[in-house]
Amino acid sequence: MNVEKIRKDFPILKRKDDGKQLIYFDNAATSLKPEAVLDEVVDYYSRYTANIHRGVHKLSQEASEKYEMAHRKVAKFINAKHDEIIFTRNATESFNLLMYGLYNQKYFSEGDEIIISAMEHHANIVPWQFLEKNAGVKLVYAELNEDFTLNMDDYREKISPKTKLVSMTHISNTVATITPIKEIGKIAKDAGALFAVDAAQSIPHMKLDVKDINADFLAFSGHKMLAPTGIGGLFGKKELLERLPPFMFGGDMILSVERHSSEWNDLPHKFEAGTPHIAGGIGLGAAVDYLSKIGMDEIRSHEKEILEYALDRVNGIEGITVYNPMDAEKQGGIVLFSAKEIEAHDLALALDESANVAIRSGMHCAEPLVSSLNPKGLDRASFYLYNTKEEVDVFAEQLEKIVKTLG
Ligand code: C6P
Asked: To 10 degrees, the CA torsion angle through 113, 115, 121, 123?
Protein backbone atom coordinates (compact mmCIF):
# COMPACT_ATOMS: atom_id res chain seq x y z
CA MET A 1 0.00 0.00 0.00
CA ASN A 2 1.47 3.33 -1.07
CA VAL A 3 0.55 5.69 1.78
CA GLU A 4 2.27 8.72 0.23
CA LYS A 5 0.18 8.27 -2.91
CA ILE A 6 -2.99 7.76 -0.86
CA ARG A 7 -2.33 10.94 1.12
CA LYS A 8 -2.39 12.95 -2.12
CA ASP A 9 -6.00 11.84 -2.64
CA PHE A 10 -7.09 13.71 0.51
CA PRO A 11 -7.03 17.48 -0.11
CA ILE A 12 -7.45 18.33 3.58
CA LEU A 13 -4.11 16.70 4.39
CA LYS A 14 -2.42 19.71 2.76
CA ARG A 15 -3.83 21.87 5.53
CA LYS A 16 -1.39 23.75 7.74
CA ASP A 17 -2.17 25.95 10.72
CA ASP A 18 0.54 28.34 11.90
CA GLY A 19 2.89 26.50 9.57
CA LYS A 20 2.14 23.15 11.22
CA GLN A 21 0.90 20.27 9.15
CA LEU A 22 -2.48 18.84 10.20
CA ILE A 23 -2.19 15.47 11.92
CA TYR A 24 -5.62 13.92 11.92
CA PHE A 25 -6.00 11.25 14.59
CA ASP A 26 -9.76 11.52 15.08
CA ASN A 27 -10.78 8.92 12.54
CA ALA A 28 -13.06 6.99 14.89
CA ALA A 29 -15.22 10.14 15.08
CA THR A 30 -15.25 10.67 11.32
CA SER A 31 -12.84 10.04 8.46
CA LEU A 32 -11.39 12.47 5.94
CA LYS A 33 -12.76 12.36 2.39
CA PRO A 34 -10.80 11.57 -0.78
CA GLU A 35 -11.15 13.57 -3.98
CA ALA A 36 -12.91 10.62 -5.65
CA VAL A 37 -15.80 10.97 -3.17
CA LEU A 38 -15.85 14.78 -3.24
CA ASP A 39 -15.93 14.74 -7.06
CA GLU A 40 -18.90 12.36 -7.14
CA VAL A 41 -20.85 14.60 -4.78
CA VAL A 42 -20.08 17.75 -6.79
CA ASP A 43 -20.88 15.89 -10.01
CA TYR A 44 -24.36 15.04 -8.75
CA TYR A 45 -25.08 18.64 -7.79
CA SER A 46 -23.47 20.22 -10.85
CA ARG A 47 -24.43 17.82 -13.65
CA TYR A 48 -27.54 15.80 -12.85
CA THR A 49 -29.32 17.12 -9.74
CA ALA A 50 -32.77 15.55 -9.59
CA ASN A 51 -35.03 13.71 -7.21
CA ILE A 52 -34.96 9.93 -7.55
CA HIS A 53 -37.75 7.50 -8.43
CA ARG A 54 -39.99 10.46 -9.21
CA GLY A 55 -39.25 11.69 -12.72
CA VAL A 56 -39.18 10.24 -16.20
CA HIS A 57 -36.64 12.80 -17.37
CA LYS A 58 -33.00 11.97 -18.01
CA LEU A 59 -31.66 13.67 -14.89
CA SER A 60 -33.95 11.74 -12.58
CA GLN A 61 -33.16 8.49 -14.37
CA GLU A 62 -29.44 9.10 -14.01
CA ALA A 63 -29.68 10.05 -10.31
CA SER A 64 -31.93 7.04 -9.59
CA GLU A 65 -29.53 4.66 -11.32
CA LYS A 66 -26.51 6.03 -9.44
CA TYR A 67 -28.34 5.84 -6.11
CA GLU A 68 -29.46 2.26 -6.77
CA MET A 69 -25.95 1.37 -7.91
CA ALA A 70 -24.60 2.66 -4.58
CA HIS A 71 -26.85 0.15 -2.76
CA ARG A 72 -25.40 -2.60 -4.95
CA LYS A 73 -21.83 -1.49 -4.27
CA VAL A 74 -22.34 -1.46 -0.50
CA ALA A 75 -24.11 -4.84 -0.68
CA LYS A 76 -21.22 -6.38 -2.60
CA PHE A 77 -18.73 -4.81 -0.18
CA ILE A 78 -20.19 -6.84 2.73
CA ASN A 79 -21.47 -9.83 0.73
CA ALA A 80 -25.18 -8.96 1.01
CA LYS A 81 -27.97 -8.78 -1.57
CA HIS A 82 -28.72 -5.30 -2.94
CA ASP A 83 -32.21 -5.20 -1.42
CA GLU A 84 -30.83 -6.11 2.01
CA ILE A 85 -29.11 -2.71 2.30
CA ILE A 86 -31.22 0.15 3.63
CA PHE A 87 -29.70 3.60 3.44
CA THR A 88 -30.18 5.57 6.65
CA ARG A 89 -28.56 8.75 8.00
CA ASN A 90 -26.06 6.88 10.17
CA ALA A 91 -25.56 3.91 12.49
CA THR A 92 -27.68 5.63 15.13
CA GLU A 93 -30.66 5.83 12.80
CA SER A 94 -30.07 2.21 11.77
CA PHE A 95 -30.39 1.06 15.37
CA ASN A 96 -33.50 3.19 15.85
CA LEU A 97 -35.04 1.74 12.69
CA LEU A 98 -34.39 -1.74 14.02
CA MET A 99 -35.64 -0.96 17.51
CA TYR A 100 -38.90 0.69 16.36
CA GLY A 101 -39.43 -2.06 13.79
CA LEU A 102 -39.13 -4.82 16.40
CA TYR A 103 -41.29 -2.78 18.81
CA ASN A 104 -44.05 -2.26 16.22
CA GLN A 105 -43.80 -5.91 15.24
CA LYS A 106 -44.44 -6.76 18.92
CA TYR A 107 -41.40 -9.01 18.77
CA PHE A 108 -40.66 -8.58 22.47
CA SER A 109 -42.79 -9.64 25.43
CA GLU A 110 -42.52 -8.56 29.06
CA GLY A 111 -39.51 -10.21 30.73
CA ASP A 112 -37.58 -10.81 27.48
CA GLU A 113 -33.91 -9.92 27.52
CA ILE A 114 -31.51 -8.11 25.20
CA ILE A 115 -27.78 -8.71 25.65
CA ILE A 116 -25.25 -6.04 24.72
CA SER A 117 -21.67 -5.62 25.92
CA ALA A 118 -20.26 -3.26 28.54
CA MET A 119 -18.36 -1.34 25.83
CA GLU A 120 -21.23 -0.25 23.58
CA HIS A 121 -21.65 3.17 22.03
CA HIS A 122 -24.81 5.02 23.11
CA ALA A 123 -26.34 4.18 19.70
CA ASN A 124 -26.44 0.54 20.81
CA ILE A 125 -27.62 1.26 24.37
CA VAL A 126 -30.18 4.04 24.41
CA PRO A 127 -32.63 2.60 21.82
CA TRP A 128 -32.86 -0.59 23.90
CA GLN A 129 -33.50 1.46 27.03
CA PHE A 130 -36.66 2.66 25.27
CA LEU A 131 -37.76 -0.99 25.18
CA GLU A 132 -36.95 -1.40 28.88
CA LYS A 133 -39.39 1.43 29.60
CA ASN A 134 -42.03 0.65 27.01
CA ALA A 135 -41.98 -3.11 26.44
CA GLY A 136 -40.87 -4.48 29.82
CA VAL A 137 -37.64 -5.82 28.30
CA LYS A 138 -34.49 -6.24 30.43
CA LEU A 139 -31.16 -4.96 29.13
CA VAL A 140 -28.34 -7.31 30.14
CA TYR A 141 -24.64 -6.40 29.90
CA ALA A 142 -21.89 -8.89 29.05
CA GLU A 143 -18.87 -7.67 31.02
CA LEU A 144 -15.23 -7.16 30.00
CA ASN A 145 -12.08 -8.91 31.14
CA GLU A 146 -9.31 -6.90 32.79
CA ASP A 147 -7.54 -6.51 29.44
CA PHE A 148 -10.71 -4.95 27.93
CA THR A 149 -11.55 -8.00 25.84
CA LEU A 150 -15.10 -9.34 26.04
CA ASN A 151 -15.68 -11.83 28.82
CA MET A 152 -17.11 -14.68 26.77
CA ASP A 153 -17.83 -16.80 29.87
CA ASP A 154 -19.96 -13.99 31.25
CA TYR A 155 -21.79 -13.71 27.90
CA ARG A 156 -22.37 -17.47 27.78
CA GLU A 157 -23.68 -17.44 31.36
CA LYS A 158 -26.09 -14.60 30.67
CA ILE A 159 -27.61 -15.92 27.48
CA SER A 160 -30.81 -17.89 28.11
CA PRO A 161 -34.17 -18.76 26.53
CA LYS A 162 -35.25 -15.28 27.67
CA THR A 163 -32.67 -13.66 25.35
CA LYS A 164 -34.50 -12.41 22.26
CA LEU A 165 -31.76 -10.19 20.84
CA VAL A 166 -27.98 -10.00 21.08
CA SER A 167 -26.73 -6.65 19.78
CA MET A 168 -22.98 -6.38 19.96
CA THR A 169 -20.23 -4.11 18.75
CA HIS A 170 -17.68 -5.58 16.37
CA ILE A 171 -15.01 -3.04 17.35
CA SER A 172 -15.37 -0.78 20.36
CA ASN A 173 -14.96 2.96 19.67
CA THR A 174 -13.11 3.40 22.97
CA VAL A 175 -11.03 0.45 24.17
CA ALA A 176 -11.00 -0.70 20.49
CA THR A 177 -11.52 -4.39 21.32
CA ILE A 178 -12.39 -6.60 18.36
CA THR A 179 -15.07 -8.97 19.57
CA PRO A 180 -15.21 -12.60 18.33
CA ILE A 181 -18.30 -11.62 16.40
CA LYS A 182 -18.84 -14.89 14.57
CA GLU A 183 -18.76 -16.88 17.80
CA ILE A 184 -21.01 -14.34 19.55
CA GLY A 185 -23.48 -14.72 16.69
CA LYS A 186 -23.41 -18.52 16.82
CA ILE A 187 -24.14 -18.51 20.55
CA ALA A 188 -27.00 -16.04 19.99
CA LYS A 189 -28.52 -18.07 17.15
CA ASP A 190 -28.20 -21.34 19.08
CA ALA A 191 -30.21 -19.69 21.86
CA GLY A 192 -32.87 -18.65 19.32
CA ALA A 193 -32.10 -14.93 19.58
CA LEU A 194 -31.78 -12.35 16.81
CA PHE A 195 -28.24 -11.16 16.25
CA ALA A 196 -27.39 -7.52 15.44
CA VAL A 197 -23.91 -6.10 14.91
CA ASP A 198 -22.62 -2.58 15.40
CA ALA A 199 -20.09 -2.36 12.57
CA ALA A 200 -19.58 1.42 12.74
CA GLN A 201 -15.91 0.97 13.71
CA SER A 202 -15.16 -2.20 11.76
CA ILE A 203 -16.60 -1.71 8.27
CA PRO A 204 -14.15 1.16 7.49
CA HIS A 205 -11.12 -0.84 8.57
CA MET A 206 -11.44 -4.54 7.71
CA LYS A 207 -13.08 -7.00 5.38
CA LEU A 208 -16.62 -7.77 6.50
CA ASP A 209 -18.85 -10.58 5.31
CA VAL A 210 -22.37 -10.61 6.72
CA LYS A 211 -22.94 -14.18 5.53
CA ASP A 212 -19.80 -15.44 7.18
CA ILE A 213 -20.64 -13.85 10.53
CA ASN A 214 -24.32 -14.80 10.04
CA ALA A 215 -25.58 -11.38 11.16
CA ASP A 216 -29.32 -10.82 11.09
CA PHE A 217 -28.79 -7.05 11.14
CA LEU A 218 -25.70 -4.86 10.88
CA ALA A 219 -25.48 -1.09 11.36
CA PHE A 220 -22.86 1.33 10.03
CA SER A 221 -22.16 4.98 9.16
CA GLY A 222 -20.81 6.21 5.84
CA HIS A 223 -18.88 9.15 7.26
CA LYS A 224 -16.40 6.90 9.10
CA MET A 225 -15.56 5.11 5.83
CA LEU A 226 -14.64 8.10 3.62
CA ALA A 227 -18.23 8.97 2.60
CA PRO A 228 -20.12 12.20 3.37
CA THR A 229 -21.91 12.72 6.68
CA GLY A 230 -25.65 12.03 6.76
CA ILE A 231 -25.50 8.67 5.01
CA GLY A 232 -25.25 5.24 6.60
CA GLY A 233 -26.86 1.88 6.41
CA LEU A 234 -28.59 -1.06 7.94
CA PHE A 235 -28.09 -4.54 6.56
CA GLY A 236 -30.88 -6.98 7.33
CA LYS A 237 -31.56 -10.50 6.11
CA LYS A 238 -34.26 -10.25 3.47
CA GLU A 239 -36.80 -12.49 5.20
CA LEU A 240 -36.41 -10.50 8.44
CA LEU A 241 -36.69 -7.11 6.70
CA GLU A 242 -39.81 -8.32 4.93
CA ARG A 243 -41.42 -9.08 8.30
CA LEU A 244 -40.20 -5.85 9.95
CA PRO A 245 -42.70 -2.97 9.82
CA PRO A 246 -41.41 0.43 8.64
CA PHE A 247 -40.80 3.19 11.16
CA MET A 248 -40.93 6.18 8.80
CA PHE A 249 -43.96 6.76 6.64
CA GLY A 250 -44.54 8.89 3.54
CA GLY A 251 -43.39 9.11 -0.07
CA ASP A 252 -41.39 6.41 -1.84
CA MET A 253 -41.92 3.76 0.85
CA ILE A 254 -45.36 2.91 -0.58
CA LEU A 255 -46.63 1.01 -3.62
CA SER A 256 -50.13 2.45 -3.41
CA VAL A 257 -52.03 4.77 -1.09
CA GLU A 258 -55.76 4.95 -0.53
CA ARG A 259 -57.56 7.33 1.80
CA HIS A 260 -57.26 5.09 4.83
CA SER A 261 -54.63 2.50 4.00
CA SER A 262 -51.40 1.97 2.09
CA GLU A 263 -49.37 -0.87 0.68
CA TRP A 264 -45.65 -0.90 1.44
CA ASN A 265 -43.06 -0.75 -1.32
CA ASP A 266 -40.47 -3.48 -1.97
CA LEU A 267 -37.15 -3.61 -0.14
CA PRO A 268 -35.19 -1.49 0.51
CA HIS A 269 -37.65 1.34 -0.40
CA LYS A 270 -40.07 0.26 2.36
CA PHE A 271 -37.56 1.70 4.85
CA GLU A 272 -36.43 4.74 2.86
CA ALA A 273 -39.28 7.22 3.23
CA GLY A 274 -39.02 10.70 1.72
CA THR A 275 -36.30 12.24 -0.41
CA PRO A 276 -33.05 10.67 0.79
CA HIS A 277 -29.50 12.04 0.94
CA ILE A 278 -28.96 11.32 -2.76
CA ALA A 279 -25.51 12.89 -3.03
CA GLY A 280 -24.49 11.14 0.18
CA GLY A 281 -25.59 7.75 -1.13
CA ILE A 282 -23.73 8.26 -4.38
CA GLY A 283 -20.71 9.45 -2.38
CA LEU A 284 -20.90 6.28 -0.26
CA GLY A 285 -20.80 4.24 -3.45
CA ALA A 286 -17.64 6.11 -4.48
CA ALA A 287 -16.11 5.56 -1.02
CA VAL A 288 -16.71 1.82 -1.28
CA ASP A 289 -15.07 1.82 -4.74
CA TYR A 290 -12.07 3.67 -3.31
CA LEU A 291 -11.67 1.32 -0.33
CA SER A 292 -12.14 -1.78 -2.50
CA LYS A 293 -9.50 -0.60 -4.96
CA ILE A 294 -6.94 -0.28 -2.18
CA GLY A 295 -8.09 -3.51 -0.51
CA MET A 296 -9.46 -3.95 3.00
CA ASP A 297 -6.75 -6.45 3.98
CA GLU A 298 -4.05 -3.93 3.00
CA ILE A 299 -5.80 -1.20 5.00
CA ARG A 300 -6.09 -3.43 8.07
CA SER A 301 -2.45 -4.48 7.92
CA HIS A 302 -1.26 -0.86 7.52
CA GLU A 303 -3.35 0.20 10.51
CA LYS A 304 -1.98 -2.66 12.58
CA GLU A 305 1.52 -1.43 11.92
CA ILE A 306 0.66 2.15 12.88
CA LEU A 307 -1.23 0.93 15.94
CA GLU A 308 1.61 -1.25 17.23
CA TYR A 309 4.03 1.63 16.82
CA ALA A 310 1.66 4.10 18.51
CA LEU A 311 0.84 1.77 21.42
CA ASP A 312 4.52 1.30 22.03
CA ARG A 313 5.33 5.03 21.88
CA VAL A 314 2.40 6.22 24.00
CA ASN A 315 2.67 3.46 26.58
CA GLY A 316 6.34 4.35 27.06
CA ILE A 317 5.56 7.89 28.21
CA GLU A 318 5.77 8.38 31.95
CA GLY A 319 2.48 9.49 33.48
CA ILE A 320 0.34 8.07 30.65
CA THR A 321 -2.13 5.21 31.19
CA VAL A 322 -3.39 3.27 28.17
CA TYR A 323 -6.79 1.52 28.17
CA ASN A 324 -6.63 -1.03 25.34
CA PRO A 325 -6.01 -4.79 24.91
CA MET A 326 -2.49 -3.72 23.70
CA ASP A 327 -2.44 -6.38 21.01
CA ALA A 328 -2.97 -5.44 17.35
CA GLU A 329 -4.63 -8.80 16.68
CA LYS A 330 -7.23 -8.13 19.35
CA GLN A 331 -7.97 -4.46 18.72
CA GLY A 332 -8.63 -1.78 16.12
CA GLY A 333 -6.51 1.31 15.39
CA ILE A 334 -7.27 3.28 18.52
CA VAL A 335 -5.15 4.34 21.51
CA LEU A 336 -7.30 5.32 24.49
CA PHE A 337 -5.31 7.04 27.19
CA SER A 338 -5.15 9.50 30.05
CA ALA A 339 -2.41 11.59 31.56
CA LYS A 340 -2.10 11.80 35.32
CA GLU A 341 -3.31 15.16 36.64
CA ILE A 342 -4.27 16.55 33.21
CA GLU A 343 -7.93 16.70 32.24
CA ALA A 344 -8.79 14.96 28.97
CA HIS A 345 -10.04 18.10 27.18
CA ASP A 346 -7.02 20.15 28.32
CA LEU A 347 -4.65 17.58 26.89
CA ALA A 348 -6.52 17.41 23.56
CA LEU A 349 -6.56 21.19 23.34
CA ALA A 350 -2.84 21.39 24.09
CA LEU A 351 -2.05 18.86 21.34
CA ASP A 352 -4.21 20.78 18.88
CA GLU A 353 -2.71 24.15 19.72
CA SER A 354 0.92 23.13 20.01
CA ALA A 355 1.25 20.60 17.18
CA ASN A 356 -1.98 20.70 15.13
CA VAL A 357 -2.80 17.14 16.23
CA ALA A 358 -6.56 16.40 16.25
CA ILE A 359 -7.65 13.76 18.76
CA ARG A 360 -10.93 13.27 20.64
CA SER A 361 -11.44 13.71 24.38
CA GLY A 362 -14.28 13.13 26.83
CA MET A 363 -16.82 10.32 27.13
CA HIS A 364 -16.76 9.27 23.46
CA CYS A 365 -20.52 8.56 23.49
CA ALA A 366 -19.75 5.46 25.56
CA GLU A 367 -20.32 6.95 29.00
CA PRO A 368 -21.10 3.78 30.99
CA LEU A 369 -17.66 2.36 30.19
CA VAL A 370 -15.55 5.53 29.96
CA SER A 371 -16.89 7.06 33.18
CA SER A 372 -16.05 3.81 34.97
CA LEU A 373 -12.43 4.12 33.76
CA ASN A 374 -12.16 7.82 34.50
CA PRO A 375 -15.09 9.98 35.61
CA LYS A 376 -13.45 13.00 33.94
CA GLY A 377 -13.12 11.36 30.54
CA LEU A 378 -10.27 10.00 28.42
CA ASP A 379 -8.25 10.93 25.33
CA ARG A 380 -8.35 8.94 22.11
CA ALA A 381 -6.09 8.86 19.07
CA SER A 382 -7.54 6.87 16.18
CA PHE A 383 -5.90 5.99 12.88
CA TYR A 384 -6.80 5.32 9.26
CA LEU A 385 -5.21 4.38 5.97
CA TYR A 386 -3.52 7.76 5.39
CA ASN A 387 -1.76 7.99 8.77
CA THR A 388 2.00 7.48 9.11
CA LYS A 389 4.58 6.58 11.73
CA GLU A 390 6.10 10.05 11.28
CA GLU A 391 2.80 11.53 12.42
CA VAL A 392 2.83 9.20 15.43
CA ASP A 393 6.34 10.49 16.24
CA VAL A 394 5.19 14.13 16.27
CA PHE A 395 2.16 13.21 18.37
CA ALA A 396 4.12 11.13 20.89
CA GLU A 397 6.93 13.68 21.26
CA GLN A 398 4.42 16.48 21.80
CA LEU A 399 2.41 14.38 24.22
CA GLU A 400 5.51 13.73 26.28
CA LYS A 401 6.36 17.43 26.39
CA ILE A 402 2.83 18.40 27.44
CA VAL A 403 2.75 15.77 30.18
CA LYS A 404 6.07 17.08 31.51
CA THR A 405 4.95 20.71 31.52
CA LEU A 406 1.29 20.40 32.59
CA GLY A 407 1.46 17.20 34.64
N1 C6P B 1 -18.78 7.04 17.18
C2 C6P B 1 -16.93 8.36 17.93
O3 C6P B 1 -16.28 9.41 18.04
P4 C6P B 1 -23.18 7.83 14.19
O5 C6P B 1 -22.95 8.96 15.14
O6 C6P B 1 -24.63 7.45 14.14
O7 C6P B 1 -22.57 8.04 12.86
O8 C6P B 1 -22.40 6.55 14.76
C9 C6P B 1 -22.75 6.04 16.00
C10 C6P B 1 -21.77 5.01 16.44
C11 C6P B 1 -22.22 3.73 16.69
N12 C6P B 1 -21.39 2.77 17.08
C13 C6P B 1 -20.08 2.99 17.26
C14 C6P B 1 -19.19 1.86 17.70
C15 C6P B 1 -19.56 4.28 17.04
O16 C6P B 1 -18.27 4.49 17.24
C17 C6P B 1 -20.43 5.32 16.64
C18 C6P B 1 -19.91 6.71 16.44
C19 C6P B 1 -18.12 8.31 17.00
O20 C6P B 1 -16.62 7.35 18.55
C21 C6P B 1 -18.99 9.50 17.17
S22 C6P B 1 -19.81 9.55 18.72
From this structure: -40
For the chain, 407 residues long, give each residue's pLDDT as a single digit of tens: 999 999 999 999 999 999 999 999 999 999 999 999 999 999 999 999 999 988 899 999 999 999 999 999 999 999 999 999 999 999 999 999 999 999 999 999 999 999 999 999 999 999 999 999 999 999 999 999 999 999 999 999 999 999 999 999 999 999 999 999 999 999 999 999 999 999 999 999 999 999 999 999 999 999 999 999 999 999 999 999 999 999 999 999 999 999 999 999 999 999 999 999 999 999 999 999 999 999 999 999 999 999 999 999 999 999 999 999 999 999 999 999 999 889 999 999 999 999 999 999 999 999 999 999 999 999 999 999 999 999 999 999 999 999 999 87
* Contact predicate 359/335, CB 8 Å: no
Mutate which of 30, 92, 121, 197 for ligand 1? The one with the most ligand atoms within 8 Å of its CB, which is 121
Question: Cα(240)–Cα(49) distance, rounded to whole angstroms?
Answer: 34
Pocket lining: 358 vs ligand 1, CB cutoff 6 Å: no
Q: Tell me if the bond preceding 268 is cis, omega within 30° of 0.
A: yes
CA-derived radius of gyration, the chain:
22
Ligand 1 centre from 121 Cα, in Å? 7
Amino acid found at 205? H
Neighbouring C-alpha atoms within 13 Å toward the C-beta of 234: 30
Considering 13, 365, 373, 406, which one is annotated as catalytic?
365
CATH 3.40.640.10 domain residues, the chain? 48-293
Q: How many CB atoms lie within 10 A of CB 353?
A: 13
The finding on whether 121 has its CB within 6 A of some atom of ligand 1 is yes
Q: Could you tell me the distance, in angstroms and rounded to a whole number, from the CA of residue 194 to the centre of ligand 1?
A: 22
Q: How far apart are CA 22 and CA 391, in angstroms?
A: 9
Give the length of the chain.
407
Residues of each domain in the chain carrying CATH 3.90.1150.10: 3-26+295-406
Q: If you write DSSP's letter for every residue of 141-197 in order, what string do you get?
A: EEPB-TTSSB-HHHHHHH--TTEEEEEEESB-SSS-BBP-HHHHHHHHHHTT-EEEE
Would you state the CATH architecture of domain 48-293? 3-Layer(aba) Sandwich (3.40)
Is the CATH code 3.90.1150.10 the one for domain 3-26+295-406? yes
